[in-house]
């Protein structure tokens, strides 16, 4: 296992946070670093790749001490999906294993309209920026196996107050996602 790939990601992304200002610029600068991380599926420890029979899992892999970014392993069991939600901070999704579909929603007052869908294959990246419209629903595109994507957000996403939307009524509810595990991988060993 080459956990040094995760360490390299953390070191490079920390440098970006130290030298680049602004959400869009930080997202754009981090994108190629995440692309390099998800180009190889040989580094994610088993403990952070485990699906749950009922719920998609969000395993924190690292959080910057100043909470300028975090990296999370999302593990989707067959048929699992998110509610319609936003993020409130910039984000990047890198497909590591399997496949997932993201369907965008446009919000016009109280009305939500489903927009384009994109299905990610391993190595591909999706960008999320609130000012560009980041409301979406994500589902495992595979009916018979788990899928895993690696997410980077411009904050400690487990603590961010954000929103879920009822696509039928447009009703908005606040939520805080938290994380699925109490432990993080040790890439210093
Ligand atoms: Fe999302």
Please supply descriptive tags for the structure shown above.
single chain, 189 residues, alpha+beta, Jelly Rolls, binds fe (ii) ion
Description:
- The protein is α+β, with helices and mostly antiparallel strands and 189 residues long.
- Helix content is 16%, strand content 35%.
- The chain has helices spanning 4-19, 23-37, and strands spanning 57-63, 70-76, 84-85, 91-97, 100-108, 111-120, 125-128, 136-140, 147-153, 162-165, 172-175.
- It has a 5-stranded antiparallel β-sheet, covered by helices on one side. A 3-stranded antiparallel β-sheet has the order 3-10-11, with no helix packed on it.
- Helix 1 packs antiparallel against helix 2 (23-37).
- The longest helix has 16 residues, at 4-19.
- It is globular and about 50 Å long.
- Fe (ii) ion binds next to strand 8.
- InterPro entries: CDO_1 (IPR010300), RmlC-like_jellyroll (IPR014710), RmlC_Cupin_sf (IPR011051).
Brief overview, please?
The chain is an alpha+beta fold. The protein has two helices and eleven strands; from the N terminus they run H-H-E-E-E-E-E-E-E-E-E-E-E.
Number of helices: 2
The spatial strand order of the largest sheet comes to 1-2-9-4-7
**Helical content class:** 10-25%
CATH fold name: Jelly Rolls
Mind telling me the CATH class? Answer: Mainly Beta
What is the mean pLDDT?
A: 96
Q: What's the number of structural domains?
A: 1
What would you say the CATH architecture is? Answer: Sandwich
Q: Report how far the terminal alpha carbons are from each other.
A: 12 Å
């Amino acid at each position: 296992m080459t956990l040094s790939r995760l360490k390299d990601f953390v070191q490079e992304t920390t440098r970006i946070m130290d030298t680049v200002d602004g959400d869009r610029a930080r997202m754009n600068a981090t994108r190629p670093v995440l692309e390099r991380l998800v180009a190889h599926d040989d580094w994610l420890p088993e403990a952070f790749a485990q699906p749950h029979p009922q719920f998609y899992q969000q395993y924190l892999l690292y959080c910057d001490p100043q909470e300028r970014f975090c990296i999370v392993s999302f593990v989707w069991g067959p048929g699992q999906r998110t509610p319609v939600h936003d993020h409130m901070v910039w984000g990047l999704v890198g497909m590591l294993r399997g496949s997932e579909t993201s369907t965008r929603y446009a919000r016009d007052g109280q009305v939500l309209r489903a927009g384009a869908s994109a299905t990610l294959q391993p190595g591909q990246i999706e960008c999320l920026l609130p000012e560009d419209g980041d409301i979406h629903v994500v589902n495992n595109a595979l009916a018979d196996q788990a899928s895993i994507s690696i997410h980077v957000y411009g904050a400690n996403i487990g603590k961010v107050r954000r929103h879920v939307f009822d696509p039928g009524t447009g009703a908005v509810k606040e939520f805080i996602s938290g994380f699925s595990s109490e432990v993080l991988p040790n890439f210093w060993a």
